[in-house]
Each structure stands twice: as structure tokens, then as C-alpha cells.
Amino acid sequence: MMPDVSIDHDTLSPDGATSTTASGAPVQTRAARLRAFWSDFCRAPVAVVSLIVIILLAVVSFGAPWVSPQDPYDMASLDWMDAFLKPGSVGAGGYTHWLGTDNVGRDMLSAIFYGLRTSFVIGLSAGVLALALGICVGLSAAYFGGRLESLLMRIIDLQLSMPAILLALVLVAMMGQGVGQIILALVVAQYAYFARTTHGAATVERGKDYIEAARSTPLPARRVVFRHLLPNVLPPLIVVATVQVASAIALEATLSFLGVGLPLTEPSLGSLISNGFKYIHTDRTWLSIYPGVFLMITVVAINLVGDQVRHVLDPRNQR
Amino acid sequence: MLGYFVQRLAQAVVVVFAMSIIVFVGVYAIGNPIDVLIDPGATQEIRAKLIAQYGLDQPLWRQYLTFLVNVAQGDMGTSMVYNIPVVDLVFSRLPATLELVFVSVVIATGIGIPAGLYAGYRPDSYGAKAIMALSVLGFSVPTFWIGMLLIMTFAVNLGVLPSGGRGDLGTVLGIDTSLATLDGWSHVIMPALNLSLFKMGLMIRLTRAGMVEAMRTDYVKFARAQGLTDRQIVFSHVLRNISIPIVTVFGLELGSTLAFAVVTESVFTWPGVGKLIIDSILQLDRPVMVTYLVMVVILFVLINLTVDLVYARLDPRVRLKGGA
Questions:
Q1: Which of A40, A72, B41, B185 registers the highest number of CB atoms within 10 A of its CB?
Q2: Does the interface predicted TM-score (ipTM) exceed 0.85?
Q3: Using CA atoms, how far apart are residues A214 and A219, in angstroms rounded to an integer?
Q4: Closest partner residue to B259 among A163, A289, A296, by Cβ?
Q5: Is B148 close to A288, i.e. CB distance below 8 A?
């Protein structure tokens, strides 16, 4: 094990608190840059509203057991007499079903909160795991180069030419239904986007002087890659990550809708919509419309936030 | 160039073989199809006979070899559900999918490119902002839900369009197609619109980006100085220059439109290949799954190969770097 020589990370990395840029201008501290980022982000009111919406949705979904009027998966609390109540009617429980009830008398609002939680859990876990895997693949390709790089990037190019929905569909078909299987399928289907972005940014960075400098020291490769290279390829990855979380949520909903995702006993927004789709030719449209509206709001809000983050991080738009 | 061509072709063949093994093993890992096919009360003899008939008692590598030998003879196996050769089954469904994809591509370009041109020409107008907002929706809102809303609006509430199926078929040049009858068109228009939305969003963004970039260039300034009208500049100069990336992405996206047809066909019960693959996944119809997946792999490898070769033809740096 190579001893860590006493080279201050900050003097090598261009984003350190004490270093200066090539032009000699002082570099902002981390906190100041965060503040600048935040004030740039707030220039688009749509993005701020979207962020608030996402936070609200996250609160009601992760707080579902406390905020929803009913536990929709406790069969004992369901009443068959309540089946297919119209939105706004009062059921046997004595409270108003604002979004109506489904075929077994389940309160739709509660079902949507719980479903949203499943969707968030799947979207976030798939996004984070795909990010980690993509970073590892992309960084090793860029850092080690040579045959490994061409092999890895070939595989990734081929995978990217295939639509994620098809890949995820096949994987879920192979592995069977369940939350774990869906997350795994989404990770395999999506890591390539992160790997591609990481590799692109890292190939630009690896030619720069500070990486050369870090490599000329006896620091182990692991440390150079994770402490010096990684922080500088993170910004574009944040943008990809937001978009991929939204797309993971949409993909999961699509898979569940097609009947290969989650069963209705383990509901997500997709399986709720799928259940409502059976009643599309009746006037019970609330069964599919409301979960769909929540799905749409979630996905669009995440995408709008991602768009604004991309806009702020784009060097061409920097003041 | 020839060396590069041979190298890429060899790579493509290796990829197809590797993928066919992965697909075969992966599909084999799914459940036991015999349990789905026969009634649970069937005797052991019937069961054993069926297993032997489908070759399921053989070791996996032998099953794969048998599969390869049969493929070489143009035999992809027999569907366990429909009991007809898979090749016939897939080809009987292919025209429906192709005609859906065709109409949706026409809609996507017919609306997407003019909308993108306008949004790039007047980027700050309200019209342009509305177009961009719509393209974000087309990108991010899941296809199946938009399809459902279309059905609710036009089929259930207004009752003007049918909610599913392919409608009456007419014959054009010996091919049965919905596009030959009015009833067929009324069936195809809604799924095609649904399928086109994602692509349309992409077209709008590409065209707009190209247009914004092009309007700042010198050749546009000189064309203006010559006294050409904006209409002439856009249609005879700008459009020609920005069409190359649009056509490239267009070609690449054809494959993914075919794949996305899986979702649209399920929503609108369109009897194409996409509906077939979903049904066969749900019914564990292995030969159909393997055939479809291998066909998709070949399709995407071919698209990739074509793009690489065309680029190599256009840009010598690619083949100098890649072809050792």
C-alpha cells in the first residue's frame, strides 16, 4: 500500500478553495459557488415551482402511511360496498374519497400516495446504482485507455443504440416480477448513459495539467481517479442523473402497464393506471386519469428541474 | 477502407453471436413453458412426450446448437401457443408494424420539421415557446398514458375514432394494408400519432437547434445582403445545411420507433410484432421471444454498422483511427 504523500488535494485540483485559475482570478469557495448556482437556478420560476412540486410529492409519498386517509393494502380496512365510488363521495369509512375508489373499494388518493412511493424508490435506487456503475465503467475506460477503453465503449455504444424500454422489457421478462428485479433491469438498461457521459468528460479532463501533476506523484491510481478526476466530471453527470431518474419512473410505469412490471399487490403508479385501463370503456375514468396525472406531473417536474440545472451548468450561459 | 469494412463486419458477426447466446440462455432461464402449456392434470407420459418433442430434456448447449443448425436452414422453431412456424408468425405480423411506423414517421417529420424551423426562426415568440413546451411533453410524458388519453378523448367521449384493431384491409401492389381503406386510416391515425410524439419532440429540438445556429452564420448574412427574402434563405440555404444531422438521427431513430411500437401496439391492440412479443412474454412462448430478440439485435447491429461505414466514408479520420 502506497503511503499518501502530503500533497494537499486542493493545490492540485482546480476546484480547491485556495488555488487560483490560470488567469490569476481567485476561485470561489465551495459554499460561494453553491450560492451562485442556487441564484442562477432561481432565475427560472418554472424550475423553482417544479422543485417545490417534487418536494411536496416526495413528502406525501414517503409520508404515505401518515398522510393518506387509508392503508390501501390492508385488506381488512377495505369495504366491498365502497367499490367504484365517484371522486368526492363519502364511503363507509366516513371520510371523503377525493379521487374516488377502485374495484375493491380502495381509496384512490391513498393508493396513489403509496404508488408514488414505490415509483420514487424504484426511480431513485435505479438512478443512484446506474450512476455508480456508469461512473466506474466510464472512469476506468477513460483512465486506463487502450484495449479496455475500446472494448467498453463499443459495448456501450451498441447498448445506447437500443432503446432502454426494449432492454428493460427483455430483462424483466427474464428475471420475473418484483421491485428488486425491476431496479436491476433499469440499472442495466440505463448505466450506459452515465458511462458515456463520464467517459466523454473524463477524456477531456485527463489531458489537463492537474491530472498529469497528480499522476506524477506517488498517489495510487484509485486516489487520482476518485479525488481528482471524479469531482471535475460530476457536473454533467448531475444533469444526466435527474433525467434518468425521471425516465426510470416512466419506464417502470410502462413496464407495469404492459403487465411485466409490478403486480397490483405491490402497486406503483404504472400498475394503478394499468388497472384503471380495464375500465376505460366505462365512465370510471378516474381510475386511470388521476394516477396518470400524478405520473405526468412527477416526470415533467423532474425533467424541468434537470433542464434548468443543465442550463445553469452550461459554461456558455455562465455570467 | 476495405480493411476497415472487414474489421467492422467481423465485429458485427461476433456481436450477433454473443447476443444470440445471451438471449437464448436468458430466455431459457424463464420458468418452465410446459407447465403453462399443458393442463395440470395431464399424465406423466404426455408431459414427458411434450418435453421430448420440444427438446427441453436436452442439455442447454445442445439445445442452442440445434437452434443454430435450424436457423441456418431458415427454421426458427414453432410457436408453442399458435403452433405455426415462428418465421411465418412474425412475417404475418410485420406489415402491420411497418405501416404503423411509416405513418408515424411521416407525421413526426411533417409536423416536427416545420415546427422546429419556426421555433428556430423566431426563438423568442410565444409560438416558439409553446412548441418547445410541447416537445418537452412529447419527450417526458410516457407514451402509454398519452395513448390512453387519446382513446378516452376520441374513442370513448367523442366516439369519432375506433379504440383499437387494424380495421378493413385493402390490397396495394399485392400487400394487405390498412392504408388502402378509409376505415383502415381511421384505425391507424391515433396509434400513429401516439407513436410519433417522441420522435416529433426530437425532430423539433434538432431542427430548432440547427436553425438557431445557422441564422447567425455568415452565409445567411450574405444571402440577406444579396436581397433574398427570408423564405428563400430558409428553404434554399438553411434547410439544406441543417438536413444532414436531421437525416442521421432520423435513420438511427427508425430502429427505436420499431421498438417503441411495443407500447403503442399494446395500448391500441394493434396486431403487429410488438403486441406479439408482449403476448409471448406473458405466455412464455420461447421460440417467438428468441426469434424476435435475435431479429432486433440483427436490426440494431445493421443500423450501427451502416452508420459507422457511412461516417468512415465521409470522414477519413474515423477509418484511420479505427482500422489498424
A1: A72
A2: no
A3: 7
A4: A163
A5: yes
